[in-house]
Amino acid sequence: MNGPGQVIELDLKLDLDVQAKLSLALRRMVPEIVRDSVAEIQRKIPEYADEDCVQALELATGYAVDQFLVMIERPGPPSDQIVEFFRKIGTLEALSGRGLREWQAAVNIGARSAVRHLARAMTAVEMPTSVYGQVVEEAFSYLNRLTRAAAQGHAEAAGEEFDLRLHRRRVLLERLIEGLGAHEVTDLAGEADWPVPRRAAAVALQPGDPGPPWHLGPPADVLDGRHRPEPCLIVPDPEGPGRRRGLETMLRGRAAAMGPTVPVDRVGLSLRWARQALELSLRGLVPSDRLVIATEHLPAMTVLRNREIVAHSAAQRLRPLLELRANQRYRFAETLSAVLESGSHAAVAAERLHVHPQTVRLRMRKLDQLFGADLHDPDLHLEFLMVLRVWLAEARPGVDPPWFGPREPQGAGAGGAVSDAVRAC
Prior knowledge:
The chain is mainly alpha-helical and 425 residues long. It folds into three domains: 16-158, Globin-like (Orthogonal Bundle), CATH 1.10.490; 163-292; 307-424, no CATH class. The chain contains 16 helices and six strands. The protein has helices at 16-44, 53-73, 81-95, 100-124, 129-158, 160-178, 182-191, 243-250, 267-282, 298-304, 307-317, 326-341, 346-353, 357-371, 378-394, 414-424, and strands at 199-205, 223-225, 232-236, 256-258, 262-263, 292-293. Strands 1, 2, 3, 4, 5 and 6 form a six-stranded mixed β-sheet that branches. A hairpin with a 6-residue loop joins β2 and β3 (232-236). α1 (16-44) packs across α4 (100-124). The termini are far apart. The relative contact order is 0.07.
């Protein structure tokens, strides 16, 4: 079953000579990688201990390693045959009466064995640590895609058994969101054939998802809540090797946010944070060009969830900005925020703003004139940071937030007219 989105690509940025040295070193080790991986799988997983499984395990392991090396040697989209091959393996696993838990365990064991050999090979040819990190990350992402393909094949073959398992997993997901005790989690997870992780995180998805079609669903160990009015996923061990990149690849082109990693019986809390982060992303108040990680936007989430009271304070505290021209205010607000966040180090602030340090110093002199002693009062720094966060989130260069502007005149008279004239200059 071929189709768009079912090929696998590696995101490796290696020089040609590095590619060649790495590929040659690993090619020499393929027989050893396959032999050791199969032996360890059979030793640790009773379901694969039978001698009849040796040939199948060797074939699957050898093909996976070979295709990974092909993609290192010839970057670019490979044939989609590797995805189809592992989809068929999933089908055969279901027909053999084995669940995906055993398959996932076998993949994890094989991956650890392969990474050990990879470390030896790269040490032998004196590869930089940065290259090793790249290759390991891509190897885990690659294996995650193969696991998902196998899960798809398993689901297609499992029929009614799969429907029952799907129902049980959906019940488990709902109960986890509601909040379960540890013992209840273990019991329901056992019925749903879901290995209970120590920690997990929730991913909130946009209702009525306008993103591209889902060619492959989430990995087999992810609880899938895409059917819900407020769709979500529950992701075990989200900080594990390759997991973050795998999620970003799967969710590319979609609005999604991930909550904090928590003990599995507290994923309802993670989902609440994820939904808050997604809401801010959909409103354009936090960057949304990729998977939003809630814990990377804690100040924005804390402030913007209480936007009304902070906006009220901002309208008063930042009023001196009105002494600047409209097309200057955004730049000066941005500069003030960067200076406060960098501990008043002009060079650090300049690096954040991509301007020269002298530009920052000149702007700060003007801000000193406008704000006076308030700007140097340490008791006000936190308030300034909060109000600037809201002001900058709702403004853009040349355009103030809709609630920010001059006070209405307190009464008619020459005093008000003179004040307005001076402000207009």
